[in-house]
Design goal:
single chain, about 475 residues, mainly alpha, Growth Hormone, Chain: A, 2 domains, about 75% helix, about 0% strand
Length: about 475
């Protein structure tokens, strides 16, 4: 499923002001999938220690339960495009909303560890679908003049979802007297944390009934008049609808369906440009960013921070993530993708190295010494800030722009799959690595952040200001 990439006709370049509010509502409603993506992927942070205690499992088993959702993510992302092309973008959103709801209820009321893992896989499938369908739908319904800004709604919704999940977890933990297993509404607090996601999931489903189908999908199934109606809704009365329909249809007929076979070549199985995309995806995950969102409460508690405070620090980290994302959105088109990635890498090396240093000290009365404790806390926020203002946004921009037209869809799919696999590897390994040596674990992340600098300098080409057709 590809988004339209044709040059807009003159009549399509601006949206009538009366229609802009409606278009913003449509994009925001679709971006609720991104909010759920962020919320569901990080809400588990509040339940890690309670799950370990309730089911009396070691770090290795616990890590698999946390990371198993990523298997669902990979499958959901791989299949969402085909589903959306067959039954429509809106139906795809509604399926994701149902899966999010079912996952939230099941995760809140598990019978045993195995079915908790199953519900997390289902939630992961919904995350994968949302990660694909949201950006594609927004690109297809947005007037060309506003497509970039409206497209940023998805990433903004993801980081807001992460922050809100941490804030909700913090509030529920306080309500349960600081105990993840404390009683709350007849359940343990961690169960309520996982179950609260029912609310945004249902809202996402309801909003999907209030927004129109993609004109591109409608044209693909022969519903030209309905497609024209929606184009009039989102682009205004002054647009030449026949010209716009012809333009979209021409682009659809011109697009090549890239396949996995098109990616093969060169000395090392894939073409070099595909390996660069895979490298960007792997480096983005191997710096350990998702440790900050899946395990931060556990991490702070392991170095003596009070559980309630640890949840508060997780929330502040999420706020820093939002700030960094906004900075990236402002500067990615001004200073370029490559300089931003390099700035981020340098900042991440500093933050991660300071964390590794702080965690190398022995605990005193169950806590890090005061100086090291503050260094660890500040360094963690520095790391997240520099990641968010660079690699968090820039990698997705690069992956959307760097591949030649004829292989773009297939190459992006391979790179995104590599990202989910790398995410799984870091998520599944962290508890065992932390038990072994927390400082050494952060040294490993620091090394990957450092290696990303020569990788970007040598292999990654700037894509700022270049037409997609220039990518060779």
């Amino acid at each position: 499923m590809a988004s339209t990439s044709q040059a807009p006709s003159p009549g399509a370049r601006t949206a009538h002001p009366d229609h802009l509010g409606h278009v913003i509502f449509i994009a925001a409603a679709a971006a609720m999938g991104g909010f759920l993506f962020g919320y569901d992927s990080s809400v588990i942070n509040g339940a890690v220690e309670a799950i370990r205690d309730r089911y009396d499992v070691g770090s290795a088993v616990l890590a698999q339960v946390i990371a198993v959702a990523l298997i669902g993510c990979a499958v959901g992302a791989a299949t969402a495009g085909r589903i959306a092309d067959r039954i429509g973008r809106i139906r795809c959103m509604q399926i994701a909303a149902v899966l999010f709801t079912v996952s939230a209820v099941g995760s809140a009321l598990p019978f045993a560890l195995w079915d908790l893992a199953m519900w997390r896989i289902i939630g992961g499938f919904a995350i994968g679908m949302a990660s694909v369908i949201g950006p594609a739908y927004i690109a297809e319904v947005s007037p060309p003049a506003y497509r970039g800004r409206l497209g940023s709604f998805q990433q903004a919704a993801i980081v807001i979802g992460i922050a809100v999940s941490q804030l909700v977890n913090w509030g529920l933990l306080n309500a349960a007297g600081g105990d993840q297993r404390g009683e709350l509404m007849g359940l343990e607090a961690w169960q309520v944390m996982l179950g609260v996601m029912v609310i945004p999931a249902i809202l996402y489903g309801l909003l999907s009934f209030a927004i129109p189908e993609s004109p591109r999908f409608l044209l693909s199934v022969g519903k030209r008049e309905r497609a024209k109606e929606i184009l009039r809704e989102v682009e205004g009365k002054d647009v030449d609808l026949d010209a716009r329909v012809a333009e979209i249809e021409h682009a659809m007929h011109r697009e090549e369906k890239s396949s996995f076979k098109d990616l093969l070549g060169g000395s090392f199985f894939f073409k070099p440009i595909v390996w660069i995309g895979i490298g960007l995806s792997v480096f983005q995950q191997f710096v350990g960013i998702n440790v900050a969102f899946y395990y931060s409460s556990t991490l702070w508690q392991s170095v003596g921070v009070d559980p309630t405070q640890s949840f508060f620090y997780s929330f502040t980290t999420s706020i820093i993530n939002i700030v960094g994302t906004v900075i990236a959105m402002i500067f990615v088109d001004r200073i370029g993708r490559k300089p931003l990635a390099l700035i981020g890498s340098v900042g991440m090396v500093i933050g991660l190295a300071l964390e590794a240093w702080a965690f190398s000290f022995d605990l005193v009365d169950g806590k890090l010494p005061a100086t090291q404790g503050w260094v660890a806390l500040i360094a963690a926020h520095v790391f997240v800030l520099f990641f968010a203002l660079s690699w968090g946004v820039v990698v997705w921009v690069f992956l959307g722009e760097m591949f030649p037209n004829r292989i773009r869809a297939a190459a992006l799919g391979v790179a995104a799959s590599a990202q989910w696999i790398a995410n799984w590897a870091i998520t599944a390994s962290f508890p065992s690595l932390a038990d072994w040596n927390l400082s050494a674990t952060y040294v490993i992340y620091t090394i990957f952040a450092a290696l990303s600098i020569p990788f970007v300098l040598k292999f990654v080409k700037e894509t700022k200001g270049k037409a997609l057709e220039e990518m060779g």
